[in-house]
């Protein structure tokens, strides 16, 4: 057979295989900033990336919302470096599935936070198969503002939870994402004047400067987040707009400004049914 | 008896009577802007004051959160001109208690929205006696941002509701109250640039310009409102940041700007127990 034709056929076969067997594994259309070499290097230098949960300004509050992990099957949407997966296992989780779109982050996760109880999958949050009643706990840390749909995702997460199952997530606060630039408004001398809010009810894509790069995020209103949960059968059990803890406020320069506007929103919700998985 | 001494004794007696018999009726320390002649006149000119619920930008959303009033005992905290009291009666409420600090507003309410089923009381929201299980529904329209405490009030409202009872309220949105001035940030030519947010986590008094007067309001975070409800045994059943309806958007000049930042927060919550009072 002509070598060119053979090569072409093999190529078409490989394409077909990708389309048939791996349709949900990786969607090249989705922005995957964390696999951008430069951005990834920057992100890896952040304190929360190097030192983990204790170095994350919101951890002291998020931790309070997390349920008892003992014997539970956990799904982590946007697991990144795997810090939360590892925490869940340390707290007694039976199994943890961590999914993330970034191969680079998963490489680090697989090296640093490895455990026979953790499975890492490269996949967009929207492409995961949320099989009915397969998880007791779903967590998601600072990921869902990268994802456009919320209603449909809520429905799927609700489906994959067991009765009484728990969904705890953190996102960038609607006040933080509305304007888009994610920067303070300054006077001519460079002093912070205030935080600008605009286009609040115009949901959708914003391009923010994050670590010196342009990063796409999806602004959603508070109503979308909370009524999205309520309309899909969740009971809201807790909500916190975290403030930095006292230690960080005293030690880290500029941290006082974090009291001037909310940056994150932490929400805990429960699927109706036996309440045990969500209580500590 | 010396006339001066007699006068003094009568004065002391009247003071004592006030202290003994009317301790919760009227607290002169509480700001009572709506009894200020000039402010009252301004407020009375607003479309929502003259034309009632249909002219209020948020009514089409608030109405959706209101439960079935038939046969219910209703408490309206900050009833103002009594538009909501009248609506509750029209919808079949058994009895409605409307309380407000402003004598001027109650005078209008007693004239315009009178009904044998409505009782109007002049009193601060904080001073009402929330007797256990005496109301099926508590509503409050744009009042609780004038009141400093929320946790304690939530506890009291929860107490006075029957099991399954419903609490629906609207307040100025934390994004709207944080900065304090309640005004847009303009460029030098007077064009709106954006809405300023500052001091978000510093709760407490702000002095805003409202209808050409300085009015005191109390900023609270979203966390305070929602976790206040959750911590006091309420289940959150709905939450809406209302946008003006299409008609107002098209007809009223400047209404488009209302899409640029949230102004109000509407919340419906339920006391655990038989759900019937809260379902329509």
Description of the structure:
Two copies of one chain form a homodimer. Chain A is an alpha/beta fold and 280 residues long. The first copy, chain A, is built from ten helices and eleven strands. Chain A has a seven-stranded mixed beta sheet with strand order 3-2-1-4-5-11-10, with helices on both faces. The first copy, chain A, has a two-stranded antiparallel sheet with strand order 6-7. Chain A is globular. The relative contact order of chain A is 0.14. The A-B interface holds A 175, 178-179, 185, 193-202, 221-223, 226-227, 230, 235-241, 243, 259-262 and B 175, 178-179, 185, 193-202, 221-223, 226-227, 230, 235-241, 243, 259-262.
Which secondary structure elements does this structure contain, and how are they paired or packed?
2 copies of one chain form a homodimer.
Chain A lengths: L2 H19 L15 H9 L1 H5 L7 H7 L7 E5 L5 H8 L4 E6 L2 H10 L5 E5 L12 E7 L9 H10 E12 L1 H4 L7 E2 L5 E6 L6 E7 L2 E7 L2 H10 L2 E7 L5 H6 L12 E8 L9
Parallel strand pairs in A: 1-2, 1-4, 2-3, 4-5
Antiparallel strand pairs in A: 5-11, 6-7, 8-9, 10-11
């Amino acid at each position: 057979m002509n070598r060119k034709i053979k090569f072409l056929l093999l190529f078409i076969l490989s394409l077909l295989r990708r389309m048939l067997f791996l349709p949900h594994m990786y969607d090249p259309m989705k922005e995957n900033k964390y696999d951008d070499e430069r951005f990834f290097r920057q992100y890896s230098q952040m304190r929360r990336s190097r030192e983990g949960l204790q170095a994350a300004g919101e951890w002291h509050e998020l931790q309070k919302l997390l349920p008892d992990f003992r014997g539970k099957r956990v799904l982590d949407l946007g697991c990144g470096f795997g810090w939360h997966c590892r925490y869940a296992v340390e707290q007694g989780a039976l199994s943890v599935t961590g999914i993330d779109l970034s191969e680079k982050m998963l490489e680090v996760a697989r090296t640093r936070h490895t455990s026979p109880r953790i499975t890492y999958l490269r996949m967009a949050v929207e492409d995961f198969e949320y099989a009915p009643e397969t998880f007791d706990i779903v967590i998601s840390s600072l990921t869902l503002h990268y994802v456009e749909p919320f209603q449909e995702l809520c429905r799927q997460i609700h489906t994959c939870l067991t009765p009484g199952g728990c969904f705890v997530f953190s996102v960038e606060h609607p006040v933080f994402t509305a304007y888009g630039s994610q920067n303070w408004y300054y006077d001519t001398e460079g002093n912070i004047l205030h935080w600008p809010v605009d286009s609040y009810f115009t949901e959708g894509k914003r391009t923010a400067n994050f670590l010196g790069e342009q990063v796409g995020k999806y602004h959603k209103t508070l109503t979308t987040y909370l009524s999205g949960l309520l309309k899909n059968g969740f009971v809201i059990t807790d909500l916190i707009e975290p403030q930095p803890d006292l230690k960080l406020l005293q030690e880290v320069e500029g941290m006082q400004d974090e009291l001037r506007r909310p940056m994150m929103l932490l929400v805990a919700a429960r699927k109706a049914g036996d309440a045990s998985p969500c209580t500590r």
